[in-house]
């Protein structure tokens, strides 16, 4: 039996959102647990669809697990210095108190940018390594969207990534991390490790593993076989502005030669498919016109994905472009979910079910061109925003997104939340009396996760480009830190370096 410290700290930073993610945000209960410490980690995370739940379920009976802390800030603006230092300070402090430990397991995302560190996880792992010393294995599980850096690879001994997007295998990823941990416990730290970066960024819309080429790439992943601790593919999160942004292949192995051979082979498979990482997207008006036409005869809903306002990519979830297109086209039987506007939810609760309220809905967070939608809505249904999620991506969570309301205007209804909630689960709709499969049109603020729960009930899926803080096209990002020479999308233009970049030394 080994003594293993466990913990987690997630953030997926969209550096192009004009705000900050602070400590209070991590501490709050939203569509995921609040920041929890010690035994509360076990209480809150057991049975959820997070990777740490899979790790705990496999390792609990066999080893002495010492929970440090766990928190997830989801996706959003840059993490404040205060939040990072308080959370990492607690995690590292608790680890120091827990010493000696035989190993450490961390459930991380791998795309965290803070006010001080463009490689948040690399800095966290540096500090963890400083506490445990040079001989103790450190295994991490990572989100498929991790932007892996050399520092992260050097300080860790296993890196296991989700193999799905939509992420329906987080628990399995934690179990793979447990499998990797067992070999680390018996053989010690591996001497081989290799990181390879693809020469191009892949937009999130081109990363879905339900289809090729991403499907074939993730199938090449390995854990604890063929001389490897792991061979992992991580598609990257393009809106994180850091030197090492972009798709990665990581191998940890018992020899350096094996790590390099495996990583090179997987990278070749990715590069060979460069032209095929793509998704068709249309304007809101075009998408709505198509949805209305199809929905006239369809027996199942037509899904419109409002990809650029996806809170899972750092969107504010209050953009109104697609809503306006639906109303102006006089769509019938359409439901928008989920639009985050705490003031609107409050006004609806004050007025009560059946009342009419004249409000300016959403559109207050930008970006430029996004404005509130002013109208008189009927308050069709109210909810307290507390319910349990049950889908493949995020099931088993106690959700608390604050007061909710279903607001209706003609043939269009909007499910309003008080905290951001990606449309990756049907439970939020049912909470306000909407059965998703019975609608004509579902407009969902999501980029890919909706596909797990909504594509199976959909007649057709149409991805639209309404304005939002997640830009689907990475060539539009004002990168400042990205390394020069990377193509900004598959077959796209090469990034020549940040504006006014200091001249490089020879
Ligand atoms: Zn992800």
Structural overview:
The structure is a single chain. By secondary structure, the chain is α/β, with parallel strands linked by helices. The chain folds into two domains: 3-276; 284-464, no CATH class. The protein contains 14 helices and 20 strands. It has helices at residues 23-27, 39-45, 51-59, 81-98, 120-132, 150-155, 170-187, 214-218, 256-271, 284-295, 321-328, 342-351, 427-430, 450-454, and strands spanning 3-13, 36-37, 64-76, 103-108, 138-142, 158-161, 192-197, 222-225, 228-234, 248-253, 302-306, 334-340, 356-361, 373-383, 386-388, 398-400, 404-409, 412-417, 441-444, 460-464. The strands form four sheets. The protein has an eight-stranded mixed beta sheet with strand order 13-14-17-18-12-19-11-20. The protein has a six-stranded mixed beta sheet with strand order 2-3-1-4-5-6, with helices on both faces. β4 (103-108), α5 and β5 form a beta-alpha-beta unit. Bound molecules: zinc ion. The site of zinc ion has 4 residues, from loops.
């Amino acid at each position: 039996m080994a003594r293993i410290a466990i913990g987690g700290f997630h953030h997926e930073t969209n550096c192009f959102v004009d705000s900050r993610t602070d400590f209070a945000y991590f501490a709050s209960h939203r569509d995921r647990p609040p920041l929890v410490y010690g035994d509360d980690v076990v209480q809150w995370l057991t049975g959820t669809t997070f990777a740490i739940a899979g790790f705990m379920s496999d390792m609990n009976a066999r080893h002495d697990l010492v929970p440090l802390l766990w928190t997830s800030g989801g996706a959003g603006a840059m993490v404040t210095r205060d939040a990072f230092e308080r959370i990492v300070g607690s995690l590292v402090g608790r680890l120091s108190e827990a010493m000696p430990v035989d190993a450490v397991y961390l459930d991380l995302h791998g795309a965290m940018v803070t006010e001080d560190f463009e490689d948040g996880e690399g800095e966290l792992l540096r500090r963890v390594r400083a506490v445990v010393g040079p001989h103790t294995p450190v295994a991490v599980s990572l989100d498929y969207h991790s932007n892996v850096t050399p520092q992260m690879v050097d300080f860790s001994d296993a890196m296991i990534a989700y193999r799905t997007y939509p992420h329906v295998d987080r628990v399995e990823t934690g179990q793979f991390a447990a499998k990797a941990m067992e070999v680390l416990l018996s053989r010690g730290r591996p001497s081989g490790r290799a990181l390879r970066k693809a020469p191009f960024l892949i937009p999130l819309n081109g990363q879905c593993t339900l289809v090729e080429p991403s499907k074939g790439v993730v199938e090449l992943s390995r854990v604890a076989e063929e001389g490897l601790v792991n061979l992992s593919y991580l598609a990257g999160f393009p809106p994180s502005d850091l030197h090492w942004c972009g798709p990665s292949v990581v191998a940890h192995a018992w020899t350096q030669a094996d790590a390099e051979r495996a990583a090179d082979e997987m990278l070749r498979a990715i590069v060979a498919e460069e032209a095929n990482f793509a998704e068709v997207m249309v304007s809101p008006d075009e998408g709505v016109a198509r949805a209305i036409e199809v929905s006239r005869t369809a027996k199942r809903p037509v899904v419109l994905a409002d990809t650029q306002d996806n809170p899972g990519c750092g969107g504010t979830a209050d953009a109104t472009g697609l809503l306006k297109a639906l109303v102006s086209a006089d769509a019938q039987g359409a439901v928008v979910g989920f639009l985050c506007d705490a003031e609107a939810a409050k006004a609806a609760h004050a007025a009560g079910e059946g009342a009419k309220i004249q409000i300016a809905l959403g559109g207050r967070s930008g970006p430029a061109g996004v404005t509130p939608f002013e109208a008189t809505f009927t308050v069709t249904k109210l909810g307290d925003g507390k319910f349990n999620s049950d889908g493949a991506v995020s099931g088993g969570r106690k959700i608390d997104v604050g007061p909710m309301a279903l607001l209706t205007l003609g043939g269009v209804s909007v499910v309003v939340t008080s905290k951001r909630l990606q449309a990756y689960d049907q439970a939020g709709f049912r909470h306000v009396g909407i059965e998703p499969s019975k609608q004509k049109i579902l407009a969902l603020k999501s980029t890919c996760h909706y596909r797990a729960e909504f594509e199976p009930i959909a007649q057709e899926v149409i991805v639209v480009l309404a304005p939002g803080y997640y830009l689907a096209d990475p060539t539009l990002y004002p990168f400042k830190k990205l390394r020069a020479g990377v193509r900004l999308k598959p077959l796209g233009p090469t990034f020549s370096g940040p504006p006014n970049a200091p001249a490089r030394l020879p």
